[in-house]
């Protein structure tokens, strides 16, 4: 060392440099080492030898006393002894390379079986880091200054050369191992480069320049070796990850074979954090409250390579590709986590996509594209709806990234008019989060002046405290761009924006089919052989490759999380307190029930009412069915059966026509009408039960809208069984075959049924005539009303028609031509001009009223004619065929109601219950439907309180686990 110092002094021309270099050597090593050396040097008699005086004998404030010449044998012995001591130091530095593996093991430990015994064997990381840093500083200083005295070469040049080669090799290995995971080596190389630069400037002769060039070459070789070491260790890590996956699989197989009890799998920190973000997205999509939780926001111009950077970090090509087309149409939240298997999964799906299988990758990309297009509604090009997915795999850095649509400067004709503004607003919205980490992606193959994203980033983060700049496509930039311009970009001197760090990556060769492994290999080879980024020393090795980028982003992400998570939890505590206070003031006697809980309660009440359908008594069912059925059938019975037959003339023709009409009716429309009546009766009874429940004192009107919507939808879907129509057809045909009334009670019921039905029709006919003729004289006087011109004509026509009916009480239902001519001429004499159609329109209700009044008289006469009917049958003097007809109709209604009642109780109520359950299940999955049907201040306040409480609990759980990990 003394000889090296003297040699440098000869170049500098002063002894003061010797003093400075020696002091640097002494201070850069540990005190314990030199104290031990001092003790061994003075061992035996307490006298110091000449070697120790070079370091330990001070004289004056500026230098060290240079000892007299000693025997060369003693000097060689001392040098070899120092070399042996350095061997142990270098060996310890080499072991420092295991720090990275130790740290990596801590990350894998959650996915492996219990290996806690290793913690007692491996030392702590901090001790290894401190020792490796000290060793690197010592190595950097020693490597520059150490030279061998020429006098020693005369004694044994071969031995000294061999020792020097051994020393350089061991020193380089120790430095590389100690600086594997940090930037200490980069700082050391910077010192080497600075020293060599200063030395080159100070030297004037040719020999100095040659040494400077040699040192410069050594620095470049060292950079190459650093990249090679990174690649080497990366391959070793991948090998260990593969072994880890195999061990994990074997462990799971053994666990299944032992049939151990299943336990709840403990969620990782990043999964817990991602769930909190998902809850916040569902709670407040506008982030108007205080959602300032950190997330990595990936922003950049369209086609700048943002998605490719994210895929490189995720180690899988999970997004669809398009040439020149906008593919990212909605924010995609990707949660990266370490795991034994490389899989992806959407938040709302249980399916896992194996990212090692190309078939699963293709399906995943199709699903992403489908979800993006489905999120764009109403003619929009981009959407604010977030697509959440999780990607797990060996070696992935834990973080949450949000990929946003690329910023565009020009819109195409197939885009919505507000696409450009929507993308700008969405990007600024995510970047405005004060704790969001902005991953600014810049295309290195295009001019920097064409960048749109840098201005937005500068507006949101002017000081660059949370921005990381990434230059993509640098393989193209090497051929096209100016090296000085690239150097300015990566040093932060070209753009006005500032950033925490600057990185350069290669995201592929522009081939869609390239795998991530091929892209990473291409990236490593490029940076290893690049003249621009490596040979010319534009950037440091830790600023290149996607792997270094992902590590830097992950470290910054977790640092931001640890700094801000407590503050966000306190904000939610305050919000929860305010909501709870408001609930107690407005609803002191009620519990906070959200929409899901209220929906389940309403579901139970609706299903209980379905059960109550079967508890309605048979008599009530038959009365309701009979009323509904006659309401459906009465018009057909009068218009198509009774009136045409009764107005036909003779008694025999009446019975024949009735038989024909009834049989046609039973074979065609009667069964279908009966089923329709039964379906409507079921609906009516169910609504009556719901209405009765609404009037109970314990009724909660918050469910009314939901119940009505469910019932309406279920009844709309409900249809009677098809086989019920065939069954009813057989029963009704057999019933109508019976033409004989069996007893007096049935006869009286038939007469009453006839009278009631005829009276109803007579009332309808009277109402029709009153509308045609206008109000009577008394009503006109009392209500100050007058007749219209048409009503006055109708009165004149009716007066003439009544004359005809009074003349012939058994007149046929139609007017003859002569009768029409007579009526028209009589009206003309009175100054009323009408046509034959006008007369016929007035004749129809007039004759019907006349006929119905006669039918009532016949019904009254037939009330006491049962015994005559039983003795004389159809030849009875009193015509009672209409009573027999209505008895037959009454019997059909009775057996039909009985069949419908049994069908409702045994089959239809259960089918309706099933359909209501299906509707409820559909509504339970439709959040928009529930929000539409369950409304009001009570629901909204409870829903917000429940969500805030849930988010706060998840935040506290995450904070506890985060503190335990520290």
Automatic annotation (TrEMBL):
GO terms for cellular component: microtubule; mitochondrial inner membrane; mitochondrial intermembrane space. PANTHER family: DYNAMIN, DYNAMIN-LIKE 120 KDA PROTEIN, MITOCHONDRIAL. It is an enzyme of class 3 (hydrolase). Its EC number is 3.6.5.5. The lineage of its organism: Eukaryota, Metazoa, Ecdysozoa, Arthropoda, Hexapoda. GO terms for biological process: apoptotic process; endocytosis; intracellular distribution of mitochondria; mitochondrial fission; mitochondrial fusion; peroxisome fission. Residues 205-257, 902-929 form a coiled coil. This is Dynamin-like GTPase OPA1, mitochondrial. GO terms for molecular function: GTP binding; GTPase activity; lipid binding; microtubule binding. SMART domains: DYNc (SM00053). It comes from the Eukaryota. Residues 290-566 form the Dynamin-type G domain. The keyword Hydrolase applies. It is found in: Mitochondrion inner membrane; Mitochondrion intermembrane space.
């Amino acid at each position: 060392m003394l000889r090296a110092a003297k040699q440098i002094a000869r170049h500098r021309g002063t002894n003061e440099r010797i003093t400075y270099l020696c002091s640097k050597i002494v201070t850069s090593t540990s005190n314990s080492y030199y104290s031990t050396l001092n003790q061994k040097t003075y061992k035996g008699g307490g006298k110091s030898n000449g070697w120790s005086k070079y370091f330990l004998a001070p004289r004056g404030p500026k230098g060290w006393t240079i000892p007299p010449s000693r025997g060369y044998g003693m000097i060689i012995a001392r040098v070899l002894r120092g070399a042996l001591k350095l061997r142990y130091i270098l060996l310890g530095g080499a072991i420092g390379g295991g720090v990275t593996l130790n740290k990596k093991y801590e990350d894998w430990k959650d996915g492996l079986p219990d290996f806690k015994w290793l913690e007692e064997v491996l030392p702590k990381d901090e001790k290894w880091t401190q020792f490796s840093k000290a060793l690197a500083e010592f190595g950097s200083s020693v490597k520059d200054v150490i030279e061998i005295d020429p006098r020693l070469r005369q004694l044994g040049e071969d031995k000294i050369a061999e020792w020097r080669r051994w020393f350089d090799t061991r020193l380089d290995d120790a430095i590389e191992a100690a600086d594997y995971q940090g930037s200490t080596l980069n700082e050391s190389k910077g010192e080497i480069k600075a020293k060599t630069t200063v030395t080159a400037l100070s030297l004037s002769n040719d020999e100095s320049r040659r040494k400077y060039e040699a040192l410069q070459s050594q620095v470049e070789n060292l950079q190459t070796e650093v990249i090679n070491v990174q690649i080497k260790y990366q391959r070793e890590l991948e090998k260990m990850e593969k072994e880890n996956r195999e061990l994990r699989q074997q462990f799971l197989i053994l666990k299944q074979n032992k049939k151990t009890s299943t336990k709840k799998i403990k969620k990782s920190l990043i999964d817990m954090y991602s769930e909190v973000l998902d809850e916040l997205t569902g709670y407040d999509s506008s982030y108007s409250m205080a959602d300032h939780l950190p997330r990595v926001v990936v922003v950049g111009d369209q086609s700048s390579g943002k998605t490719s950077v994210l895929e490189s970090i995720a180690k899988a090509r999970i997004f669809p590709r398009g040439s020149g087309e906008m593919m990212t149409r909605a924010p995609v939240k990707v949660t990266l986590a370490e795991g034994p298997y490389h899989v992806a999964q959407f938040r709302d799906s249980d399916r896992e996509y194996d990212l090692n299988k190309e078939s699963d990758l293709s399906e995943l990309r199709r699903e992403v594209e489908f979800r993006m297009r489905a999120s764009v509604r109403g003619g929009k090009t981009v959407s604010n709806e977030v697509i959440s997915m999780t990607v797990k795999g060996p070696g992935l850095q834990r973080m949450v990234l949000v990929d946003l649509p690329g910023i565009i400067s020009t819109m195409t004709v197939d885009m919505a008019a507000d696409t450009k503004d929507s993308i700008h607003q969405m990007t600024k919205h995510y970047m405005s989060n004060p704790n969001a980490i902005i991953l600014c992606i810049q295309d290195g193959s295009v001019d920097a002046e064409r960048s749109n994203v840098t201005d937005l980033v500068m507006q949101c983060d002017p000081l660059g405290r949370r921005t990381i700049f990434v230059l993509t496509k640098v393989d193209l930039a090497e051929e096209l761009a100016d090296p000085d311009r690239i150097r300015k970009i990566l040093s932060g001197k070209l753009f006005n924006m500032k950033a925490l760090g600057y990185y350069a990556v290669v995201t592929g060769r522009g081939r869609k089919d390239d795998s991530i492994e091929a892209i990473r290999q291409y990236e490593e080879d490029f940076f290893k052989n690049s003249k621009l980024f490596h040979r010319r020393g534009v950037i440091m090795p830790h600023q290149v490759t996607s792997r270094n980028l992902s590590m830097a982003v992950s470290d910054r992400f977790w640092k931001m999380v640890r700094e801000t998570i407590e503050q966000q939890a306190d904000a939610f505590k305050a919000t929860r307190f305010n909501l709870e206070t408001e609930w107690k003031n407005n609803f002191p006697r009620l519990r906070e029930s959200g929409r899901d809980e209220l929906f389940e309660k309403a579901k139970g009440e609706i299903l209980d009412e379905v059960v109550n359908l079967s508890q309605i008594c048979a008599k009530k069912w038959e009365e309701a069915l009979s009323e509904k059925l006659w309401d459906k059938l009465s018009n057909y019975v009068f218009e198509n059966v009774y009136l045409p037959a009764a107005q036909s003339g003779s008694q025999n023709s009446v019975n024949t026509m009735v038989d024909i009409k009834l049989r046609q009716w039973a074979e065609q429309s009667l069964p279908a009408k009966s089923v329709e009546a039964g379906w409507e009766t079921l609906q009516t009874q169910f609504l009556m039960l719901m209405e009765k429940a609404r009037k109970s004192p314990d009724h909660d009107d918050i469910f009314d809208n939901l119940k009505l919507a469910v019932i309406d939808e279920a009844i709309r879907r409900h249809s009677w069984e098809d086989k019920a129509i065939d069954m009813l057809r057989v029963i009704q045909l057999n019933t109508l075959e019976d033409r004989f009334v069996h007893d007096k009670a049935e006869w009286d019921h038939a007469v009453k049924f006839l009278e009631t039905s005829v009276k109803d029709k007579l009332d309808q006919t009277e109402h029709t005539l009153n509308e045609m003729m206008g109000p009577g004289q008394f009503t006109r006087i009392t209500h100050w009303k007058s007749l219209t011109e048409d009503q006055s004509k109708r009165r004149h026509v009716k007066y003439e028609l009544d004359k005809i009916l009074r003349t012939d009480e058994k007149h046929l239902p139609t007017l003859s031509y002569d009768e029409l001519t007579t009526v028209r001429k009589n009206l003309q004499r009175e100054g009323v001009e009408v046509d034959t159609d006008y007369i016929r329109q007035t004749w129809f209700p007039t004759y019907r009223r006349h006929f119905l009044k006669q039918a009532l008289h016949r019904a009254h006469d037939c009330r006491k004619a049962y015994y005559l009917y039983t003795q004389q049958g159809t030849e009875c003097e009193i015509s009672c065929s209409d009573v027999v007809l209505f008895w037959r109709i009454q019997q059909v209604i009775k057996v039909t109601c009985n069949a419908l009642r049994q069908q409702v109780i045994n089959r239809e109520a259960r089918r309706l219950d099933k359909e209501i359950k299906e509707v409820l299940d559909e509504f339970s999955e439709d959040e928009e439907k529930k929000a539409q049907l369950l409304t009001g201040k009570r629901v909204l306040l409870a829903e917000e309180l429940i969500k805030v409480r849930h988010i706060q609990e998840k935040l506290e759980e995450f904070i506890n686990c985060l503190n335990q990990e520290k």
